[in-house]
């Protein structure tokens, strides 16, 4: 009888142990699932367009994030439309190159409900048609009178850029006898450099901030019809949910801003180095107080 009771007691103990172990496993699974839900994101895709200002801005942010938050930032250069759509779809994490309200207006109007606009990192940006200061006209309305001197063309950048769409509108609205040449930021500035070296007339699609304004004596042509709009801002745009996945990174992006002089110095230093990451590190060290203010 005693043996039977002993055996029964052992069975009860073993059963309870299994139950407890089983509950313990379930709790661990639940905890693991919960931990997975709240685990901070440590790898990010930062999208940008191949403009010098966007490149400089993106490389600097990449280096700050990797240095301060021990994360990995993958830079993804692409056309503006793909950049906006990728962030709206959640395939990309953020950009620091959104020109609003004009240049990227079509993308913003379509996708604003699917992205997180953290606001301006830079104010006072501008787009329009740009000529060397020695060119003896001051308005877009005067271009037709000198079409031959401009070789019948406006030197543009990549086709998907908002400034290209605005320039096509300007050609139509001002009835210009000039065609818009598609190229790239680098090709456009190379054409500008050659023309200025030879004292030739040239008109290009331009925007500020851009290093070319510090290198050459340039001017925006007046735009009486307002095709290019007024001053713009450069905004940080993130995917929805980034604030929950990476609150510290999101807070940094929300706090990040630069003045014209600060942004100008960043763009300038990027022209001095062959390696963009090295240039970014140099700028960060030279502007440590500013960087620290973004991290507070």
Outline the structure in words.
This protein has 296 residues and is of the alpha/beta class. The chain folds into 2 domains: 43-124 and 231-294, D-Maltodextrin-Binding Protein, domain 2 (3-Layer(aba) Sandwich), CATH 3.40.190; 126-220, D-Maltodextrin-Binding Protein, domain 2. The chain has helices spanning 2-38, 52-69, 80-89, 105-111, 162-173, 185-197, 212-215, 242-245, 247-255, 260-272, 276-286, 288-294; strands at residues 43-48, 72-77, 94-100, 115-132, 153-155, 179-181, 204-208, 218-220, 232-239. The strands form 2 sheets. Strands 1, 2, 3, 4, 7, 8 and 9 form a 7-stranded mixed β-sheet that branches. Strands 5-6 form a two-stranded parallel ribbon. Mean pLDDT is 88; it is low at 1-37.
Characteristics:
D-Maltodextrin-Binding Protein, domain 2; 9 strands; alpha/beta; 12 helices; 296 residues; disordered N terminus; two-stranded parallel sheet; 7-stranded mixed beta sheet; 2 domains
Task: State the share of residues found in helices, binned by percent.
Answer: 40-55%
CATH class of the largest domain: Alpha Beta
Query: What's the mean pLDDT score?
Result: 88
Q: Uncertain segments of ≥5 residues (pLDDT<50)?
A: 1-37
Rg: 28 Å
The CATH architecture designation of the largest domain is: 3-Layer(aba) Sandwich
Whole-number total of structural domains: 2
Provide the CATH superfamily of the largest domain: Periplasmic binding protein-like II
Estimated share of beta-strand residues:
15-25%
Count of individual helical segments: 12
What is the SS-derived class?
Answer: alpha/beta
What general form does the structure show?
globular
| Major sheet details | 7 strands, mixed
CATH level-3 fold name of the largest domain: D-Maltodextrin-Binding Protein, domain 2
Extended strand count: 9
């Amino acid at each position: 009888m005693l043996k039977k009771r002993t055996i029964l007691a052992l069975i009860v103990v073993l059963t309870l142990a299994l139950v407890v172990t089983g509950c313990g496993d379930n709790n661990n699974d639940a905890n693991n699932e919960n931990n997975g839900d709240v685990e901070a994101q440590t790898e990010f895709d930062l999208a940008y367009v191949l403009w010098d200002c966007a490149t400089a801005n993106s490389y600097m942010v990449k280096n700050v994030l990797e240095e301060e938050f021990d994360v990995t930032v993958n830079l993804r250069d692409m056309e503006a439309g793909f950049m906006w759509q990728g962030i709206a779809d959640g395939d990309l994490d953020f950009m620091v190159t959104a020109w609003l309200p004009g240049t990227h207006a079509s993308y913003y109007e379509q996708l604003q409900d699917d992205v997180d606009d953290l606001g301006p990192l830079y104010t006072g940006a501008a787009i329009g048609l740009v000529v060397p200061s020695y060119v003896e006209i001051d308005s877009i309305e005067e271009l037709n009178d000198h079409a031959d001197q401009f070789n019948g063309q406006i030197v543009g950048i990549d086709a998907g850029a908002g400034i290209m769409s605005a320039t096509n509108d300007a050609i139509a609205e001002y009835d210009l006898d000039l065609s818009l040449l598609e190229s790239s930021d680098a090709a456009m500035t190379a054409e500008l450099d050659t023309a200025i070296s030879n004292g030739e007339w040239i008109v290009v699609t331009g925007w500020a901030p851009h290093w070319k304004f510090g290198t050459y004596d340039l001017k925006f042509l007046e735009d009486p019809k307002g095709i290019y709009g007024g001053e713009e801002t450069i905004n940080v745009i993130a995917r929805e949910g980034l604030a929950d996945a990476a609150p510290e990174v999101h807070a940094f992006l929300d706090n990040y801003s630069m003045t014209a002089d600060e942004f100008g110095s960043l763009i300038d230093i990027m022209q001095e180095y062959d390696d963009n990451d090295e240039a970014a590190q140099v700028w960060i060290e030279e502007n440590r107080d500013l960087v620290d203010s973004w991290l507070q």
